[in-house]
Design a protein that fits this description.
The radius of gyration is 13 Å and the shape is globular. It contains one helix and five strands, in the order ββββαβ. The protein is mainly beta. Strands 1-2-3-5-4 form a five-stranded mixed barrel. It has a domain of 54 residues: EutN/Ccml (OB fold (Dihydrolipoamide Acetyltransferase, E2P), Beta Barrel), CATH 2.40.50. The two termini are 22 Å apart.
């Protein structure tokens, strides 16, 4: 699981049935200071996130399939929350 920032969308006219009716978003991973790490994922959105939002991503295939309620799906990363604030202990 990680915190990232939505930086774009993916449009696919032909896709696996698991993606029908779902947005695919590009999410840049953030470090603990909120800076991009240079890594990204294409994520299925289940919380109505948008470009610019800071989000919580689960990036484990089995957990992602459970969230989508599918036994079989080509899914690894799912946006499960929009992050309002992050506070680190000093």
């Amino acid at each position: 699981m990680y915190i990232g920032r939505v930086t774009g969308t993916v449009v696919a006219t032909i896709k696996h049935e698991a993606f029908h009716g779902r947005k695919l978003l590009i999410v840049d991973r953030l470090d603990t200071n909120g800076n991009p790490t240079g890594e990204y994922d294409i994520c299925v959105d289940v919380v109505q996130a948008g470009v610019g939002d800071r989000v919580l991503v689960i990036d484990e295939g089995n957990g992602a399939r459970q969230i989508l309620r599918r036994k079989v799906a080509p899914v690894r990363a799912v946006i499960v929350g929009v992050v309002d604030d992050v506070e680190l202990a000093a």
